[in-house]
Amino acid sequence: MGNIQHVTSADFDEKVLNSDKPVLVDFWAEWCGPCRMIAPVLEEIAATQDNLEIVKLNVDENPEIAASYRITSIPALNVYSGGQVVKQIVGAKPKAALLNDLADYVN
């Protein structure tokens, strides 16, 4: 059961693309109100399961990663498995809706 880590351009490949389990990347920014609203929900999810890693990537500090995945609205949640995007969720959602969207990846 994990805590949410922050990733950057320097360790994105290692922590996300090369992970042996699915990874949810929360694309966020400090100024984004909905990003701040969803953060505690993601913390709760991270604390209660261990099948899915959850990491945060600040789009202002790592614009090249956000651009390479065509992130145009935040919060954007991408699930990566085997180095590929397998699920995309855009916008803040309540915990129940997020868990429903992530049902294939959480225990």
TrEMBL record:
Disulfide bonds: C32-C35
Gene Ontology CC, one term: cytosol
SUPFAM superfamilies the record matches: Thioredoxin-like
Residue ranges of every copy of the Thioredoxin domain listed in the record: 1-107
PROSITE patterns, sorted: THIOREDOXIN_1, THIOREDOXIN_2
Entry keyword NADP: no
Gene3D superfamilies: Glutaredoxin (3.40.30.10)
Swiss-Prot/TrEMBL keywords: Disulfide bond, Electron transport, Redox-active center, Transport
Site (described: Deprotonates C-terminal active site Cys): D26
GO biological process, one term: cell redox homeostasis
InterPro entries: Thioredoxin, Thioredoxin-like_sf, Thioredoxin_CS, Thioredoxin_domain
Catalytic site positions: C32, C35
Site label Contributes to redox potential value, positions: G33, P34
A GO molecular function held by the record: protein-disulfide reductase activity
Family: Belongs to the thioredoxin family.
Entry protein name: Thioredoxin
